[in-house]
Amino acid sequence: MPITADEQGFLDAVTLDAPWDLVTTFAGMHRWKPDDVNKAAAVIVDRLRRHGIPVEVHQPEICLSIPHDASVTANGVRYRAKPPSSALHVPEGRTAKLVKLKANPKALRSYSRDIGLLFGGSIGSVEEVRRKIGGCIVVMEGFGNPALTSLIEEWGGVGLIAVNPGIDIHWGTCTTIWGSPDLHDLPRKPKIPVVAVNNPDGQALMALAEAGGEATIRTVMEEGWFPQSIPVVTIPGTEDQQKFVLLHGHYDSWEVGVGDNATGDATMLEIARVLWAKRGSLKRSVRIAWWPGHSTGRYAGSTWFTDAFAQDLDENCLAQINCDSPGCRWATSYHQTRAFTESAALAAGAIRDVVPDADIKCIRPPQAGDYSFNNIGLPSFFMLSSTMPEALRREKNYYDVSGCGANIAWHTENDTLEIADRDILLVDMKIYLLSVLRIANAEVLPFDWSATCDEFDATIAQYEGASKGMADLSPAKAAVAGLREALAGLGGAPIAARNAAVQDLSRILVPINYTREARFAHDPAYTVPPLPTLAVAAELPALDAALAKPAMVELMRGQNRFVAALRAATRRVHQATGA
Length: 579
Known about the structure:
By secondary structure, the protein is an alpha/beta fold. The chain folds into three domains: 5-60 and 228-440, Zn peptidases (Aminopeptidase, 3-Layer(aba) Sandwich); 65-223, Glucose Oxidase, domain 1; 449-577. The chain is built from 17 helices and 15 strands. The protein has helices at residues 5-12, 17-26, 34-50, 115-119, 126-133, 146-154, 199-210, 258-277, 300-308, 310-316, 341-354, 390-395, 422-440, 449-466, 474-487, 495-514, 545-577; strands spanning 56-58, 61-74, 77-80, 90-100, 137-141, 159-163, 194-197, 214-227, 230-235, 240-250, 284-291, 317-322, 334-338, 360-363, 380-381. The strands form three sheets. The protein has a seven-stranded mixed beta sheet with strand order 3-2-8-4-5-6-7, sandwiched between helices. Strands 1-9-11-10-12-15 form a six-stranded mixed beta sheet. α8 crosses α13 (422-440), α14 runs antiparallel to α15 (474-487) and α15 packs parallel to α17 (545-577). It is globular and about 70 Å long.
């Protein structure tokens, strides 16, 4: 849809003055240790108040794991290393035989626990792997991510050395626990030391593993509950003030973290400034939040907010928009735009109207990036922002990373001021602002649940085909058909009833597509397949006889949950349409 005159008035108000000042300020501030993070929050609060914007500052205690030092010693050589957040604290070191596992090069960044995907068929059965790595330190290419760490631990490995792809070492996190742990989460705390090394050192360690050598991993960690500041701005709407759009992103970073995420913090600051100045033209409210605990707490800041304000989010939040790594050097493409299917047209439309010739492709968001709202059921889009065109990335011989617009400075000491680009930042700020406006000021909420039905049909067909006739998913297909038929009549409902139904549908359909845990809980930080309650159907042909019948029980229960959810969604649409 073309940009309206009202929308253009908002976009024309965007300038680089305030945001660039914050970017340059943060470029001189480390923001990963708790005290430094709170100092950064004070800077954001000060900037907001300079513009006359009221800001509420929460200060919860959240669980953090701060990495301080690490090393790998082997054959008398000490190799530089970084421990990911939540690695086991082993300052005295742990020594064991090295074992090399071969990674699938296409899955180095994957958060999946799918063994075939992670290892590309290079390993045998789980029993064989247990015999191979039990009591040993595993060394393999990749990043020390949660899914991989949890598998190595389950298989009896006593440590993990992740060999990063380049000459730099990337910080990260290795826990599957999402946010601060509850009693249910505690058993999943990593129980092994994990470190990352650069590629040249990793090659030497992998060669040593093949020769039957051993190594000592040392990690120095600080774990505890720390008070951390969460600044939140609410710009009130003029018509439906209770309902709001949530725009959010993290302000803690590794070292100075300019592209990840000072540019995002600056984007939210500027959008707050523009919306506050023009708040008389907002129909619904907009809430903007800056999170701590993203890097060292596995999204502990956004998770605390989700927990503390769960009822308000459930009743009133229309969508969440994540702002991470906008405005980075060379990032002129949008071919990796994260969006739920029902939100994809909205996200793509905002990009296309600001950048008419943009390369846009919307893809399913991974279980990452402060998407702490899936279990409540919020329509969601954006995570990482613009990125480098693939041709340019290949030309620069850059490997794939998870931010900074595909600059390999991501999560390293090199994510400094040169990673930010003023012109690209200006464009990305306008995209974010326009997308916020198109929810806040929409007459009819712009979420397409018919498109979600298309996705459901495709996923069910994929699983049924992969089952090679072993799974009957006809009840699931019939449930989708029933919802699709009901949705066809939703356009004739009164606008207020239609909007209420569109919101309520998200509370049913987002969790069934993205979560396994209950509403108001948090799933582990590894990849959830589409329609996870049905996903076991695709695994049936590969299971041995001992697992086949339990898997069919799981599928029956999962299909029951899916069908019940779709029928509840259908009833909700019928309620709105009077059918």
